[in-house]
Specification:
One of its GO terms (molecular function) is sodium:sulfate symporter activity. The protein is mainly α. The protein is built from 29 helices and two strands. Helix 8 packs parallel to helix 20, helix 9 runs antiparallel to helix 10 and helix 16 crosses helix 28. The radius of gyration is 27 Å and the shape is globular.
């Protein structure tokens, strides 16, 4: 028994050692460049899937193993770890840092929720819409960490409002006031305020610290014997949690910068197919926004039906008097918004820069009309989305936010300097360096597969799949990615599969975008488990959900997501990229490799 306990303690160490040793005969016996690269690929894949080593540490292995096995020189491997993607990421993180520092994200979220109203169905749609919008520009982790405390406060107000209704009814029937219930409500109200303080997200927190722990400890109702006064109260809490988790992921689908997987795909694609200039911020948004919007609406309907039922008559009933619960919700949202005070100069400047960045991204090369990149026609393809991101990002370090003052010996207060919108230290606290290294490792791995000839070998072996219908290949790859991303990190999954799926598309003579776009979008569909992605873990930590709740709800959202992606790839996405034609910018496969 003691032996097994030691194995459990040192299981990660043993896994690393055994993986390296067990797979070692592969390069020793066969001794070709392809098998040596395959050995490294298998080792990295196992470490990424099991997280035996931190993901970013595993991503550094190609820089160690490629030179040692003679696949690529060290200088060439090192150059893969910093690309155009990293410059784009830096600019986006500058924007996200300023948005969160000056609480602009909270103002946007609360305002959108106030617009849609306080009917439970519309309220959840408001939370999902605002969370999805913010997730387009911020990381899904920070978006969920910001939105969840607000949703939690609203959910508790609904539960407390139900308690007030019960108290009023008991007073009416008994003809006297129930003092015990009054005390119970005051305790609940105190706990709610306390909880709101404890769950307030801290700007700059990492993924682990973002998983805010909060326990809902309402006083037990004598009738139910649980921490929720009614089953409906419990269902509302579950619904709020899952709405925040799923919408923070769905919103990221719409922009290249919305998720790390989108960025990884864009950089990999532009590197592998440099002659294709069809993929930029505007084109991505054009095809992904309709898909994300449909997924969001169908997910809202699914979650609403699953937990509260979907009553169209109640939802669209005009002139209906608000219930006590709805008035309480409206009040708490209004109070939270009023706490922010009038909009400040710093928020206005951040909002202007935010809009300017989005407009420059969209107008760089929209496709249907010449963009501003045409002004630099002598250098086609030189200016990219990262150019815009860096330009706006630098302005955050330059534009003054407030004056710094000091008191002179005579008692006079004078200004001696100014503080910019963000500082380097604040930027560093937000910058996901682990993702930057992880993505660099993926690019290095892809370059190694090309240099060693492993990609061509895979393409030759996969060419028999050309006998299958293309729609079936896309469906199989999408389902495979969706399943794998539930147990492995999203960036690791897409980084691992891109060097495999690209040769597959080339081998069966299909436009690479036909397979890569659905697979990339499906990589974000990690909805089933609390550990599948950080937003799931954040909402699960509030204690309202069980794993089975997330599995039931997530399975429906996964099915919706894959179905919408399949619909999109055969309808509005086809004419955008001429997906039915094998493009000239993709490698021309030899007759031996074509089906």
């Amino acid at each position: 028994m003691k032996f097994f306990s030691y194995i459990m303690v040192y299981r990660r160490f043993l896994l690393v050692v055994l993986t390296v040793l067990v797979l070692l005969p592969l390069p020793i016996v066969l001794h070709t460049k392809e098998t040596e690269c395959a050995y490294i690929l298998f080792v990295v894949a196992i470490f990424w899937l099991t997280e035996a080593l931190p993901l970013s540490v595993t991503a550094l292995l190609p820089s160690l193993m490629f030179p040692m096995l003679g696949i690529m020189p060290s200088k060439k491997v090192a150059s893969a770890y910093f690309k155009d993607f990293h410059l784009l990421l830096i600019g986006v993180i500058c924007l996200a840092t300023s948005i969160e520092k000056w609480n602009l994200h909270k103002r946007i979220a609360l305002k959108m929720v106030m617009i849609v109203g306080v009917n439970p169905a519309w309220l959840t749609l408001g939370f999902m819409s605002s969370t999805a919008f913010l997730s387009m520009w911020l990381s899904n982790t920070s978006t969920a960490a910001m939105a969840m405390p607000i949703a939690e406060a609203v959910a508790q107000q609904i539960i407390n409002a139900e308690a007030e209704v019960e108290a009023t009814q008991m007073t009416y029937f008994n003809g006297s006031t129930n003092h015990g219930l009054e005390i119970d409500e005051s305790v609940n109200g105190h706990e709610t305020n306390e909880r709101k303080e404890k769950t307030k997200p801290v700007p700059g927190c990492n993924n682990d610290s973002g998983k805010i722990s909060s326990k809902v400890e309402l006083e037990k109702n004598s009738g139910m014997g649980t921490k929720y006064r009614t089953k409906k109260g419990h269902m509302i809490c579950k619904l709020m949690c899952l709405c925040i988790a799923y919408s923070s992921t769905i919103g990221g689908l719409t922009t290249i910068t919305g998720t790390s997987t989108n960025l990884i795909f864009a950089e990999y694609f532009n590197t592998r197919y440099p002659d294709c200039r069809c993929l930029n911020f505007g084109s991505w948004f054009t095809f992904s926004f309709p898909a994300a919007l449909i997924i969001l609406l169908l997910s809202w309907i699914w979650l609403q039906w699953l937990f509260l039922g979907f009553n169209f008559k109640e939802m669209f009933k005009c002139g209906k008097t608000k219930t006590v619960q709805q008035k309480a919700c409206a009040e708490v949202i209004k109070q939270e918004y009023q706490k922010l005070g009038p909009i400040r100069y710093q928020e206005i400047v951040t909002l202007v820069l935010f809009i300017l960045m989005a407009l420059l991204w969209f107008s760089r090369d929209p496709g249907f009309v010449p963009g501003w990149s045409a002004l630099f026609s002598e250098y086609p393809g030189f200016a990219t989305d990262s150019t815009v991101a860096l330009l706006i990002g630098l302005l955050f370090f330059l534009i003054p936010a407030k004056r710094l003052t000091k008191t002179t010996p005579t008692g006079e207060i004078v200004a001696f300097d100014y503080s910019p919108l963000i500082t380097w230290k604040e930027f560093q606290s937000f910058m996901p360096w682990d993702i930057a290294i992880l993505v660099g490792g993926g690019f290095a791995l892809a370059d190694g597969c090309e240099e060693s000839g492993l990609s061509n070998w895979i393409a030759n072996k996969l060419s028999p799949l050309g006998s299958l219908p293309v729609w079936l290949i896309i469906l199989i790859s999408s389902l495979m990615v969706t399943s794998l991303t539930e147990v492995a990190s999203n960036p690791a999954t897409i980084t691992l599969l891109l060097p495999i799926l690209s040769p597959l598309a080339e081998a069966i003579h299909v436009n690479p975008l036909y397979i890569l776009i659905p697979s990339t979008l499906c990589t974000s569909f990690a909805f089933l488990l609390p550990v599948a992605n950080p937003p799931n873990a954040i909402v699960f930590s509030y204690g309202h959900l069980k794993v089975i709740d997330m599995v039931k709800a997530g399975l429906g959202v996964n099915i919706v997501g894959v179905a919408v992606v399949m619909l999109g790839i055969y309808t509005w996405i086809v004419p955008m990229f001429d997906l039915y034609t094998y493009p000239s910018w993709a490698p021309a496969m030899s007759n031996e490799t074509m089906p």
